[in-house]
Amino acid sequence: xxxxxxxxxxxxxxxxxxxxxxxxxxxxxxxxxxxxxxxxxxxxxxxxxxxxxxxxxxxxxxxxxxxxxxxxxxxxxxxxxxxxxxxxxxxxxxxxxxxxxxxxxxxxxxxxxxxxxxxxxxxxxxxxxxxxxxxxxxxxxxxxxxxxxxxxxxxxxxxxxxxxxxxxxxxxxxxxxxxxxxxxxxxxxxxxxxxxxxxxxxxxxxxxxxxxxxxxxxxxxxxxxxxxxxxxxxxxxxxxxx
Length: 242
Ligand SMILES: [Zn+2]
Prior knowledge:
By secondary structure, the protein is mainly alpha-helical. The chain has five helices and three strands. It folds into two domains: 145 residues, Helix Hairpins (Orthogonal Bundle), CATH 1.10.287; 58 residues, no CATH class. Helix content is 79%, strand content 4%. It has a three-stranded mixed sheet with strand order 2-1-3. The radius of gyration is 41 Å and the shape is rod-shaped. The C terminus is likely disordered. Zinc ion binds next to loops.
């Protein structure tokens, strides 16, 4: 029965390596896509700022045009004042001029706001460009590392599954299915039996059963946690307690 315990131990070790490989093969691509979406989000943010800048430039030009048109109108109206004959017409035109001037003052105010906005946008864009560049540098090299690791893991994975198959084929089918069940339930399938205690779950082992573990008469599972029990001399330095 020593042999079977050793086979189970080897199988367990390969299974752990395989599940670590599987875990990394799942996690690394997830990390890559996290980095990629973070870069994408920064790129989108920058694009939005640039779009807002374009819109602000357009709005600024429109205001400038309106101001110029208003100034033109005011100038023409002021010249017209000299040609007016009636007091009533004169007053009406003066009122119109005053309104245009008031209007322009408001436009000048908006123009100032747009200019300030533009200034802010320009500095925001340059800092966003810098941030994007830095993250791209940092993340692209990390992504390349992960891609490289994934390729390495893929190379390891196939031979490892072959190795598992080969070892599993040396085990009795029933034992293999018990192994899979115990593994699913406990993670680790072996437990050291010491002083009539299963070190896997710390429950007492009936003396008769403990004797059977010591004499290696057959494979014994802990009645409580179902792990396969071995005694101290069995796995030597390789022994692991569950
Ligand atoms: Zn136990």
